[in-house]
Give the backbone structure.
Amino acid sequence: MQKLTLRMEPDQVERAKAYAAHHGKSLSQLVEDYFDSLTAAEANEETLPPLTQKLKGALCNADTSMDVSDYKKHLEEKYL
């Protein structure tokens, strides 16, 4: 295991320590878990089928100008 020095604002350090203590972990374990989750998520993205990779995030980029009334109107026109 190697030693790592991080530079953070004092209030961030205190919040991180409190979070780690609340979850029964050391701050080092918290940082280690965080980087493990980053690399695991990256590895999982690479294993998604190509179509799923293309669709991923599509809802976040969707047109947000539509509201519930637009959707109801669409359903009425489609089914009535």
Summary: The mean pLDDT is 81. The helical segments are 10-22, 27-47, 50-55, 68-79. The longest helix spans residues 27-47.
